[in-house]
Amino acid sequence: MAVIRAADIVDFVIKAKNAGWGYVFGGQGQVYTRELAEKWAAMKKSGRGYDYYVVKCAKWFGKIVVDCSGLVIEAYRSKIPGYGDKTANTIYSKSVQKGKISTIPEIPGLCVWRSGHIGIYIGNGKVIESGGTSVGVVLSKLNAPATGKKWTNWGKMADVDYTNTTIPKQPDPSSVWVGRYLKIKAPYMRGGDVEQVQTALKNAGFDPGPIDGIYGPYTERAVREFQKKKGLKVDGIVGPETAKALLGSWVDDGEPIMDPPMDSFELGRLLKITSPYMRGEDVTDVQYALAYHNFSPGTIDGIYGPKTESAVKGFQRKKKLEVDGIVGPETTNALGGTWTGD
Question: Which of 13, 210, 306, 324, CA to CA, is 20 to 30 A from 192?
Answer without folding.
Answer: 13
